[in-house]
Write a structure and sequence with these properties.
Layout (H helix, E strand, L loop, with lengths): L1 H63 L2 H27 L5 H41 L14
GO cellular component, one term: ESCRT I complex
InterPro entries: Helix_hairpin_bin_sf, Mod_r
Keywords: Endosome, Protein transport, Transport
């Protein structure tokens, strides 16, 4: 029985030694994997930061250039153009502006006002259409599974 335990002990030691050699032979692969993982993690961190920066810029851009902002900017531009026209009329009536200069500058100013007003009205119209469409999509079950056919236009 002692010999069998001795044999089992030697077998276990040999097995442990073999397993240790296998494990040691795999160590370079493990170290390479760790290094590769660290590099990938660093790349991920850089991509995450770049995405976050782009997200912040996109949000700022959308906030600055949303339709309501464009509407406000057009309204301000129209108001300024109208005020400029009024000022030109006052200058002409007080004879601070000669007729030729008045006609030229007043026509340009009114043209800018007209263009701006047209753009403003068109944008308001588009925003209204968009608002109506969104309201209809919210109420209209067409295209939804299970919607009754009688509800379709």
């Amino acid at each position: 029985q002692f010999q069998s335990l001795q044999l089992e002990r030697e077998t276990c030691l040999a097995s442990n030694c073999t397993q240790a050699k296998v494990n040691l032979s795999l160590r370079p692969r493990l170290e390479d994997g760790k290094a590769s993982l660290a590099i990938k993690y660093q790349e991920l961190q850089e991509i995450r930061e770049a995405c976050w920066d782009k997200q912040q810029r996109l949000e700022a851009y959308l906030e600055k250039w949303n339709p309501q902002s464009a509407l406000s900017q057009l309204q301000a531009k129209l108001d300024a153009s109208e005020a400029e026209s009024e000022e030109q009329i006052k200058q002409f009536l007080t004879q601070d502006l000669p007729l030729e200069s008045f006609l030229e500058s007043f026509c340009q100013s009114r043209t800018r006002s007209h263009i701006c007003r047209t753009q403003l009205e068109k944008l308001q119209e588009l925003l209204q259409k968009d608002r109506v469409q969104k309201e209809q999509v919210g109420r209209d079950p067409v295209g939804c599974p299970g919607a009754p056919a009688s509800m379709a236009p």
